[in-house]
Design goal:
By secondary structure, the protein is an alpha/beta fold. The protein is built from eleven helices and twelve strands. An eight-stranded parallel β-barrel has the order 1-2-3-5-8-9-10-12, surrounded by eight helices. Strands 6-7 form a two-stranded antiparallel ribbon. The mean pLDDT is about 95.
Length: about 350
């Protein structure tokens, strides 16, 4: 069971002062967060790609490379790379370079993204949304599996027996499929034999269990070894010394972030009752003291089949010290609890 952190490197206004943090400051802060996550024993840190004013990381590979030489063991992943509007050759090259700098710790989590700003920015049409992703994941996998590539698609110039360099340290650079929870994306990941990262950010996480089963059935049907496949969860959360303190600290920024997105997407108003329901044991918020958060992650592993849990913190802008403390507690208190109990449970169920 792997435990890690996801960050979208937000630069939304400070809840109390209204001051907007600079992109430069937030980028430097997230590198510190990655370094701390490595020091406290977390397994993976993921950086999301966005092309909006309120997010600072348009290129996850650059941020992760800044942290690569400052860390020793933590895996460094995009979360996600918006593959539909990216050049797969360049994506592979960037992460192969990251893999070299980190000595074999790079991963790509490829998805279609929850925002669409990158499409007009890079000259793509939303009517090609699905087709672009399918072509680009095919090419990305082909580059990963072969040094010389011959390929032809409908949206990118063909490649005729050309080498793509540099090559990564890892024999097979890990590529995950990031999914918001649609059946089609789960089936796609299964048929390709790629690990699946689910964004479990609302409702009851147990509702994702049938989706994981669908993913595994698709993988088995395609001839892949299901026992070797990983399933991850990207879930919003926060850890503090006391559950009520954690809830009170995390609420203002979460409410701000949810309502900002909600205004764009037509969601209902997010208030304290919505928040408290979501942080209940059946909810999708992993907010509380170390024991509370650990037990929710363990429950997710046992009943949904998640093998990697990535805590998305913060959802909006929070004081850097609070984020660092949450990462520290996740690594030093939550992760050991989860690993120990899951190891016992797996031994008993073999």
């Amino acid at each position: 069971m792997e435990i890690g952190v996801t960050s979208f490197v937000e630069t939304k206004p400070d809840i109390e002062t209204g001051i907007v943090m600079s992109h430069a400051q937030r980028l430097r802060e997230v590198v510190e967060e990655i370094v701390l996550a490595d020091r406290v024993g977390l397994d993976v840190f993921g950086i999301g790609e966005h092309h909006r004013e309120d997010y600072a990381a348009s290129s996850p590979a650059i941020v992760l490379s800044a942290a690569a030489s400052l860390t020793k063991r933590i895996r460094l992943a995009s979360a996600v790379t918006v593959l539909s509007s990216a050049d797969p050759v360049r994506v592979f090259q960037d992460f192969a370079m990251l893999d070299g700098i980190s000595n074999g710790r790079a991963e790509i989590i490829a998805g279609r993204g929850s925002f669409v700003e990158s499409f007009p920015l890079f000259g793509y049409g939303l009517h090609d949304y699905e087709e672009l992703f399918n072509e680009n994941i095919e090419l990305l996998m082909k580059i990963r599996d072969s040094e010389k590539v011959t390929w032809k698609g409908g949206h990118r110039p063909a490649i005729h027996n050309l080498g793509v360099y540099p090559r990564p340290v890892q024999n097979s650079l890990p590529i995950w499929i990031g999914s918001g929870g649609t059946q089609s994306s789960a089936v796609r990941a299964g048929l390709l034999g790629l690990p699946l990262m689910l964004a479990i950010i609302g409702g009851n996480p147990m509702n994702f269990a049938p989706l994981v089963e669908l993913y595994k059935k698709a993988a088995a049907r395609a001839g892949h070894d299901v026992s070797q496949l990983q399933v991850g969860s990207h879930s919003i959360g926060f850890v503090a010394e006391d559950t009520e303190r954690a809830a009170d600290i995390f609420f203002p920024s979460t409410q701000y972030g949810m309502n900002k997105l909600g205004k764009e997407r037509g969601w209902s108003y997010y208030d304290r009752s919505s928040y408290d329901a979501a942080r209940s044991f059946e909810g999708a918020l992993y907010v509380g003291d170390s024991e509370t958060v650990a037990q929710k992650i363990i429950h997710l592993r046992k009943h949904v089949g998640i093998t990697r849990f990535m805590m998305y913190v913060p959802l909006s802008t929070m004081p850097h010290e609070q984020v660092l403390r949450a990462i520290e507690l996740l690594g030093t208190e939550v992760a050991p609890r989860v690993r120990e109990e899951i190891a016992k449970w797996e031994a008993e169920t073999e």
